[in-house]
Amino acid sequence: MSRFEKTPGWLDWHPAPSIPGYIPPVGAVDAHCHVFGPGDIFPFAPERKYTPCDASKDQLWALRDHLGFSRNVLVQATCHGADNSALVDALKSAEGMARGVATVKPQVTDAELQALDDAGVRGVRFNFVKRLVDALPKEPLVEIAHRIKKLGWHIVIYFEAQDLPELYDFFTSLPTIVVVDHMGRPDVFSPVDGPEFELFLKLMAENENFWSKVSCPERLSGEGPPHYSDVIPFARKVVESFPDRVLWGTDWPHPNLKSHMADDGHLVDIIPHIAPTNELRQKLLVDNPMKLYWKK
Ligand code: 0GY
């Protein structure tokens, strides 16, 4: 039990997700998920913008098995700030079947970075979503980027589509592989071939170091569950255009969903619609995440 009070209206993760009809390939990776707390062991950060429910490593491993996946990439969420203890604890208990993306401050020491690497961290996350974090000055991020590059890590960026024009030049100046969370959060009420999503596609097309997670239909959709059909054309466009640079994840435990809690089984059942061939699904779920997260 957490000693923290959840944000009012907070939706807990789905207690009994359906068993997906779609069976993922052997060795499939859920490349975007989080652990929260438990808050009595791993306290939430004082600067957090929300307080979630607990979502422990054991609950995550149970979901992985239930959905027919083999591995996880854990992404540090803003509610834990730059204290990666819960993430590291989960990685250490995963027997090599999980990797991590941490949040670090510029004053992080080389020894601390090395300890994160030893635990299985392979990247840092820069978050530009205004409701989640206070604005980050760019210079310290550039400094961090150059330091983590030496470890062979990459950068995960999270932003909303309307902020891409302003952030574009900064993003393309980053010196590592850059993974975009949730396709840069397109407005799916706009056309898939409209100017907003076109800018994201241009970012991907003109910068071969850019990858994208084709995740979070539950966050982007106006239509909602179980099919989230309005998100499919966006995700499919990205998968078919950049098949070697896409990742997929559940985003369990789905922070900050307001209208409904996603059934993770439904999310898995969408995969064949966004990656319509076996070859695309093998790349999306196995080959690409293995290349990025398990090369050492
Ligand atoms: C996600 C999305 C969200 C939250 C965070 O770090 C976070 O707090 O990423 C969100 O609220 O959109 O990927 O988990």
Can you offer a commentary on this structure?
- The protein is α/β, with parallel strands linked by helices.
- The chain has a single domain, classed as TIM Barrel, CATH 3.20.20.
- The chain contains 10 helices and 8 strands.
- The protein has helices at residues 57-67, 85-93, 110-119, 138-149, 164-172, 195-206, 217-220, 232-241, 264-274, 278-293; strands at residues 29-33, 71-75, 98-102, 121-127, 154-158, 178-180, 210-213, 246-247.
- It has an 8-stranded parallel sheet, with helices on both faces.
- The radius of gyration is 18 Å and the shape is globular.
- The termini are far apart.
- The mean pLDDT is 97.
- It binds (1E,3Z)-4-hydroxybuta-1,3-diene-1,2,4-tricarboxylic acid (0GY).
- The site of (1E,3Z)-4-hydroxybuta-1,3-diene-1,2,4-tricarboxylic acid has 12 residues, from loops.
Task: Name a few traits of the molecule.
alpha/beta; TIM Barrel; binds (1E,3Z)-4-hydroxybuta-1,3-diene-1,2,4-tricarboxylic acid; 35% helix; 296 residues; 12% strand; 8 strands; eight-stranded parallel beta sheet; globular
Concise overview:
The chain is of the alpha/beta class and 296 residues long. The chain is built from 10 helices and 8 strands. The chain has helices at residues 57-67, 85-93, 110-119, 138-149, 164-172, 195-206, 217-220, 232-241, 264-274, 278-293, and strands at residues 29-33, 71-75, 98-102, 121-127, 154-158, 178-180, 210-213, 246-247.
Strand content: 5-15%
Q: Please identify the oligomeric state.
A: single chain
Order of helices and strands: EHEHEHEHEHEHEHHEHH
- Return the CATH topology: TIM Barrel
CATH second-level architecture: Alpha-Beta Barrel
Secondary-structure content class: alpha/beta
CATH class: Alpha Beta
Helix content: 25-40%
Provide the list of bound ligands, each named once.
(1E,3Z)-4-hydroxybuta-1,3-diene-1,2,4-tricarboxylic acid
Summarize the main sheet. Answer: 8 strands, parallel
In the predicted model, the low-confidence regions spanning at least 5 consecutive residues are none
Mean pLDDT: 97
The neighbouring-strand order within the major sheet is: 1-2-3-4-5-6-7-8
Query: What is the CATH homologous superfamily assignment?
Result: Metal-dependent hydrolases
Q: What would you report as the Rg, rounded to the nearest angstrom?
A: 18 Å
- State the distance separating the first and last CA atoms: 36 Å
Number of contiguous helices: 10
The number of distinct β-strands equals 8
Specify the overall morphology.
Answer: globular
Total number of distinct structural domains = 1
